[in-house]
Design a protein that fits this description.
Radius of gyration: 21 Å
Shape: globular
Structural class: alpha+beta
Number of helices: 6
Strand content: 25-35%
Helix content: 10-25%
Largest sheet: 7 strands, antiparallel
């Protein structure tokens, strides 16, 4: 198994994670992996390591030294993640009446996912769906609320010359509960890459904790305490003790649970007619000093929580999405951070992408 780092961010201010549709008064719960990669690029630029970082991760013809997952909520001892498509919601037990609406949970603890993969049944008396965050949380006093609540913060734009023409506005944000925050994972191609990049990533995340992640950073949003880093193998950090089928180990079809956005690379042998996956369209604006504000080219990627079937391990790719006339390349990371799950037939597949459909022959289209 490749070495990895589990990174816990502990917010001290509200966070704004802009939704894909761009509405100012709303905020998402997941910071996508391509946005995290862009933020790290800006951090490495300030630290003087940008060229080295891009050479290690943004070369389309070589394996990236570091791959990043998206950022998901955590609370106390639980790490939340989008459940594998086709595995959630859990099957109803024959002869019992289910009162809990499992499908209402968009983010569930990894311990629950591990239990379902072992074939264990969930007792609905032990769990509840937090309406504010959409997370599945344990019942009882230890988790009185979910990891965050969506809120709106109001402000007003005032004409500095005349003092009139006041334009009030409100921005959606996340307010995190005590002992809660966001987590992500960095997976390294080998031990050498871990030795080189682990301390530099720690420096970059410390810088981002001070300067902020997400939107409205100039207003103090997105800041955190010193991040907590936990080394180990990703499979053992998230799903300890999970055993894979022998067929997968012998070169058969393998099922991968995506923890990042994924753009298939030339070496990825994905069976697009199998699995259970969804697509998402990503755009955004350039944040570098040279091209600040320019709109990036949009592209479609496989969404987190998707189950992708392939003949081997997934790598992913990076794409230059710089707008026409941009002074430098702008990279959108679609590297795969995924956990292999026991192979089984999944009920149907979802290839929705806000009205678009995937290309089963060749995968997501740019």
């Amino acid at each position: 198994m490749n070495p990895a780092l589990l990174i816990r961010l502990r917010p001290i201010t509200p966070w704004r994670i802009g939704p894909d549709h761009g509405a100012l008064d709303q905020s998402e719960a997941v910071l996508h992996s391509d946005a995290l990669y862009s933020a790290l690029c800006l951090a490495f630029e300030q630290l003087g390591w940008l060229e080295e970082w891009l050479n290690a991760t943004a070369d389309p013809y070589s394996m990236p030294a570091v791959r990043l997952s998206s950022c998901f909520p955590w609370q106390r001892g639980l790490l939340f993640a989008p459940p594998p498509m086709g595995l959630w919601p859990p099957a109803e037990v024959p002869g019992t009446a289910t009162k809990l609406r499992w499908k209402g949970a968009g983010l569930v603890p990894t311990t629950v996912i591990s239990a379902l993969l072992r074939g264990e049944a969930l007792d609905e008396k032990d769990w509840t769906v937090d309406a504010h965050s959409g997370c599945l949380i344990p019942t009882g006093g230890r988790f009185p609320t979910g990891p965050f609540r969506r809120m709106r913060r109001s402000a007003a734009a005032v004409d500095r010359v005349t003092g009139s023409n006041i334009q009030p506005w409100a921005a959606g944000c996340l307010q995190f509960a005590p002992a809660a925050g966001l987590w992500c994972a960095a997976e390294f191609v080998n031990a050498t890459a871990y030795a080189v990049w682990s301390p530099k990533l720690e420096c970059a995340f410390r810088l981002l904790a001070d300067s902020g992640l997400g939107g409205l950073r100039s207003r103090g949003f997105g800041r955190s305490r010193t991040p907590e880093l936990q080394p180990g193998a990703l499979q053992e950090l998230l799903l300890p003790g999970l055993r894979l089928a022998q067929a997968a180990l012998n070169g058969g079809d393998r099922s991968w649970w995506m923890l990042s956005l994924f753009s298939p690379g030339a070496s990825d042998r994905v069976a697009w007619g199998s699995g259970n996956y969804a697509l998402i369209e990503r755009s955004g604006r350039v944040a570098s000093h040279a091209g600040a504000g320019l709109v990036k080219k949009s592209s479609r990627l496989v969404k987190e929580g998707s189950m992708v079937v392939s003949k081997g391990a997934l790598t992913g790719s990076v794409r230059d999405v710089a707008p026409d006339g941009a002074p430098h390349p702008v990279w959108r990371a679609g590297f795969a951070v995924a956990l292999e799950l026991p192979r089984k037939e999944l009920p149907g597949k979802d290839v929705s992408a806000k009205g678009n459909t995937g290309n089963n022959a060749g995968g997501p289209a740019a």
